[in-house]
Amino acid sequence: MDKKNIIIFFIILCMLTLAGCGEKPQKPLKEDSKEKISEHLEKIDGENEKLIEEVEKIKKEREKPVIMLEDEKSSNSKNEEEKGDEEKKEKDDTIKTEDKILKRDKAVYTMWENTLKKVELIHQEWNSYEQEAIEKGASSDDILAFERAIDGLALAVDNKDIFKTLIKANEATYNLARFFDFYKGNIDGEISRIKYYARQIYLASALNQTLDMDGMLKNISDALDRLRQKVRLEEKDKDVIIKLHSSIQDMLKTFQYKNTELLRIKKDIVLENAKEVLEKARK
């Protein structure tokens, strides 16, 4: 980032900090003022989250190094018997390595099959929910955007494309937020947006893509403001919002280092805190 963008970046971070410090105590929202979210919508979101977790496991499995254990070779004073033994050892090690690769490939294949089943469930649940979404007020653009995301998701899984799958699943998360917004008294929509932004920052780093940080910071700030306005927590649970706010700040600060592994750690903390806020709000 150039000097101007860095200044803007830290100004917005300061705004986020001040907003977090100015948070006022809020009384719990009465249960009867919360509109029940469609079970189909919750299942779509749940399967999509499980799918992302499964693909991240695939990525981790694929990145595991296959270690070839070889004895150090001595170039001198080896008789024919010793050379023969070493050749046999090298051949055995090669077979063991090939077995490890085969076992890993089988495990990855099974994981992709499980991921495909989750895609099928998402499409089935969407078929059951689509009409309700329209009745709740979803526009044709809302419907089309989500269908493009899950169609792209199916194609990415079929092609076993890890990052394309994660991108499309994340797009689905973002589009689901619009449907969650139709159910009054719930914060699921804002939580979905925060999860989307956190993953988007991580994916941009992993794929070495440029990111409009000014726009991203504004979107996150807006989502946090709306979340604070909507969420109602018991006094003893209010610290979860502060934790979420702090973890988002930490992730935004680490983006400048361009270190994908560090961002992954920060992203996972944001997601865990977002999940905790949602769980506390549903109590």
Portion in helices: over 70%
- Stretches where pLDDT is under 50 for at least 5 consecutive residues are 19-31, 68-78
For the record, the count of structural domains works out to 2
Q: Can you tell me the CATH class of the largest domain?
A: Mainly Alpha
**What is the helix/strand order?**
HHHHHHHHH
CA distance, first residue to last residue = 42 Å
Structural class: mainly alpha
Q: Which band does the percent of strand residues land in?
A: under 5%
Global morphology: globular
CATH architecture of the largest domain: Up-down Bundle
Tally of alpha and pi helices: 9
- Alpha carbon gyration radius: 24 Å
Which structural traits does this protein have?
globular, mainly alpha, Four Helix Bundle (Hemerythrin (Met), subunit A), 75% helix, 0% strand
Commentary on this structure:
This protein has helices spanning 3-21, 39-62, 80-136, 140-158, 162-180, 188-206, 213-230, 239-254, 260-281. Helix 1 (3-21) packs parallel to helix 7 (213-230). The protein is globular. The chain folds into two domains: 37-68 and 80-183, Four Helix Bundle (Hemerythrin (Met), subunit A) (Up-down Bundle), CATH 1.20.120; 184-283, Four Helix Bundle (Hemerythrin (Met), subunit A) (Up-down Bundle). The protein has 283 residues and is mainly α.
Quick structural overview:
With 283 residues, this protein is mainly α. The protein contains nine helices and no strands.
List the topology elements.
Elements (H helix, E strand, L loop, with lengths): L2 H19 L17 H24 L17 H57 L3 H19 L3 H19 L7 H19 L6 H18 L8 H16 L5 H22 L2
